[in-house]
Amino acid sequence: MKNILVTGGAGFIGSHALVELVEAGMNPIVYDNLSNSTDKSLKAVESICGVYPKFYQADILDEEALDRVFAENDIDAVIHFAGLKSVGESVAQPVRYYENNVAGTVCLLKAMERAGVRKIVFSSSATVYGSPKSCPISEDFPLSTTNPYGASKLMIESILKDLYHSDHRWGITLLRYFNPIGAHKSGKIGEVPSGIPNNLMPYITNVAVGQLEKLHVFGNDYPTPDGTGVRDYIHVSDLARGHVLALQRLEKYPEELNIYNLGTGTGYSVLDLVNTFMEVTGIDIPYVIDPRRPGDIAECYANPEKAKKELGFEAQFGIKEMCEDAWRWQEGHPHGYED
Ligand code: NAD
Ligand code: WQD
């Protein structure tokens, strides 16, 4: 595996994957419409690993642009990050989400088929487990969703499974991410939420930097040790490295369909994360307890054994490093890549 097309490569997880791919000796080619990112992230990637990846600013719904990229580059495999990811927005704009995520993926797969490139690693999500019956969650747990974003991920998983069953020349890896947080150790790339963050860690860092007054903790009456929601937070650089391992396995077993959880296997509550953040940064995070957020579940953490056994994947960074690194990025870039 050498030339890797990275859709959504300018985004949060994609930019971290670029660094890991370059460091693993691969050549990432970025395809991104910049609808939720900026190409400044690519400059920052260059400042970390010395390579400014070849970049196509284009949409995955644009089949001509996709054909051009496959014609101009000898692509070995695709990592498909491109997609819209806000749960709340997907409820308000379902058609936009299905078009961008599902129809966009179909366009990508058609272009791959035309080009004879049949290796793909797809960004799925633990959201496809819906409200899990128990934790830790294994890959064979029942799947369900409660919002259009999650449904789009589940539909894409189904399409990819059907595709594999129709033609075993495909090599397909579905990676189900748990909760990626943190930022590259350099503090040069990180997450840039648009507007007020929906997710916990960017909300905490926005409070820490003084842009938001206090954190709203969504419920403290869950059946968890301290009553707040428990999640499997995983450092984004660990998650990114999981993609390199997935490609390496695809190279060894090019005609497999595999599904892996990418998580740490450990759950932390909202208050665990807040307290750890305060401890490692020395910054106070004022918070209030609010009612539960509709659609939230009490706890969600991975059984990470399959990825460990088959990919050799194990998270290296703990919760303290996730907090430290998230803060290093936020402190240095209070307005994202504009700073
Ligand atoms: P992100 O928004 O930072 O990155 C997604 C990138 O895709 C952006 O750069 C955006 O401009 C691009 N994009 C979106 N639609 C496109 C299109 N039609 N054509 C071309 N480019 C397009 O998000 P992220 O957090 O890096 O997430 C990457 C992937 O991982 C997404 O598919 C997301 O659903 C999935 N995922 C994310 C999380 C999370 O918590 N961040 C969890 C599970 C799964
Ligand atoms: C974590 C915990 C909240 C914000 C979401 C998507 C999921 C995936 C990752 C893409 C929960 C609590 C949060 C706040 C809070 N994305 N919280 N105050 O909900 O686990 O997952 O992002 O696939 O699909 O649903 O992550 O960071 O929003 O919430 O108390 O301001 O923090 O209730 O317990 P979530 P999150």
Question: What profile does the largest beta sheet have?
Answer: 7 strands, parallel
Q: How much is the average pLDDT? A: 98
How are the strands ordered across the major sheet? 3-2-1-4-5-6-11
H/I helix tally: 11
| Separation of the first and last Cα atoms | 35 Å
CATH topology name of the domain at 3-183 and 232-265 and 301-316: Rossmann fold
Q: Rg to the nearest angstrom?
A: 19 Å
By DSSP, the count of extended strands is 14
How would you name the CATH homologous superfamily of the domain at 3-183 and 232-265 and 301-316?
Answer: NAD(P)-binding Rossmann-like Domain
Q: H/E order of the elements?
A: EHEHEHEHHEHEEHEEEHEEHEEHH
| Gross CATH architecture of the domain at 3-183 and 232-265 and 301-316 | 3-Layer(aba) Sandwich
Notes on the protein architecture:
- The radius of gyration is 19 Å and the shape is globular.
- A seven-stranded parallel β-sheet has the order 3-2-1-4-5-6-11, sandwiched between helices.
- The chain is an alpha/beta fold and 339 residues long.
- The longest helix has 22 residues, at 94-115.
- The protein has helices spanning 12-23, 40-49, 63-72, 87-92, 94-115, 148-166, 200-208, 236-252, 270-281, 305-311, 319-332, and strands at residues 3-7, 27-32, 54-57, 77-80, 119-125, 171-177, 179-181, 215-218, 230-231, 233-235, 257-262, 268-269, 287-290, 299-300.
- It has eleven helices and 14 strands.
- The two termini are 35 Å apart.
- The chain has a domain at 3-183 and 232-265 and 301-316: 3-Layer(aba) Sandwich (Rossmann fold).
- The structure holds nicotinamide-adenine-dinucleotide and UDP-4-deoxy-4-formamido-beta-L-arabinopyranose.
